[in-house]
Amino acid sequence: MQPLAVSMGDPAGVGLEILCSALRDAGASLPPLRVFADPDAVAAAAALVGLRTLPEISSVPLAAPVRAGHPDAAHAPAIIGAIEASVAACLAGEASALVTLPIAKAPLYEAGFTFPGHTEFVAHLTAKAPLPGPRGPVMLLAGSALKAALVTIHTPLKDVPAALTPAKLEQAARVTLWALKHDFGIAAPRLALAGLNPHAGEAGGLGHEELEVINPVAARLRAEGHAVTDALPADTLFHPEARAGYDAVLAMYHDQGLIPLKTLDFWGAVNVTLGLPIVRTSPDHGTAFALAGKGQARTDSFIAAARLAWTMAQTRAKAR
Fold first, then answer.
1. Contact 302, 99 (CB under 8 A)
2. Smallest Cα–Cα separation from 143: which of 23, 277, 289, 258?
3. Is the pLDDT of residue 80 over 80?
4. How many CB atoms lie under 10 A from the CB of residue 255?
5. Is 313 helix (H, G, I), strand (E, B) or coil?
6. In degrees, to the nearest 5, what angle opens at C-alpha 91 toward C-alphas 85 and 96?
């Protein structure tokens, strides 16, 4: 298999540090990596953490020097260029999958970037590539004890009920079911749907979204042979016995899925984008500007993201 593509993220954050620290500490157990980044920025991160042998680098030069912990809109073209080049390598078959290092949105927006974030940008870059399954993007967070996909992502809580349409829920469920089978290798995936309201609506007494949106979608999917639950009360959905009954949960909003996942596996969780023509993972944390330049950022999530991307790429290749 071809190496994993790694896009550099914001060079003023901890991304390149965790990459180099991971190579220093776990390099022999990591998949082969091809890093799309400014070579001098990678060399500086390597020197900071004591990495002696640099990874394979595809040069994406920065237009201005890097000050650790100080994001700069001047870096935006290279940050965006690294994502574009790494996605192109995956689409061309020159890389097996993509691992994106964290970006900060504010300096990108200052430079004219118009996408809400990584997920939407990668989806845009891959929109014309063929995909045998349903198309996302759907965000899934994968930890050692839980996989949680999201129907709505960065939607204010007051806007979630209106955003939770049958079409949006059904598409997210179909994308998640397909990915569990073709990317995670689960032959007969079981998907649990979290209720939106307390007690999953209490038969309409505490809300109608379960009766009017969630359960009808679940019934349609079950009629096709999929193992999908009706809306289940979210407060009893994440204890060990409950988790034994499903392979992934589909949460209706951001915190509903991420609070239990990060409670169970704060350091090792991985952000996965489902429903793309390429496999894409990312560490489940941000740029951590306050830690940048200190060599103290933990590598757990990056290592997990690289290993998961490699496994998913292998599983998807076998499924073809």
1. yes
2. 258
3. yes
4. 11
5. helix
6. 90
Q: How far apart are CA 276 and CA 137, in angstroms?
A: 6
pTM over cut 0.85:
yes
* pLDDT attached to residue 262: 94
pLDDT digits (tens, 9 = 90+) for 160-211: 999 999 999 999 999 999 999 999 999 999 999 999 999 999 999 999 999 9
pLDDT digits (tens, 9 = 90+) for 201-219: 999 999 999 999 999 999 9
Please tell me the distance from the alpha carbon of residue 114 to that of residue 171, in angstroms, as a whole number: 24
Q: Residue 26: how many CB atoms within 10 A of its CB? A: 15
Tokens of residue 138, six digits: 């759907």
Query: Given strand 4-7, what is the order of strands in its sheet?
Result: 56-59, 33-37, 4-7, 98-100, 280-283, 270-274, 138-142, 147-150, 248-251, 190-194, 227-232
Burial 256-280 (b: 16+ CB within 10 A, else e): bbbebbbebbeebbbbbbbbbbbbb
* 315 φψ region: left (φ > 0), alpha (ψ -120 to 50), beta (else): alpha
Helices 166-182 and 215-223 cross at an angle (nearest 10°) of 40
Which two tokens mark 242?
């409950």
Query: For residue 173, how many C-alpha atoms fall within 13 Å in the half-sphere facing its CB?
Result: 30
Amino acid at 83: I
Residues 6+ apart with CB under 8 A from 122: 83, 87, 98, 100, 137, 273, 276, 278, 280
> What is the C-alpha to C-alpha distance for residues 112 and 191, in angstroms, rounded to an integer?
39
Q: What is the mean pLDDT of residues 28-33?
A: 94
Token pair of 102 as six digits: 């964290």
**Residue 283 preceded by cis peptide, ω within 30:** no
Residue 41, H or E segment: helix 39-49
pLDDT tens per residue, range 222-255: 999 999 999 999 999 999 999 999 999 999 999 9
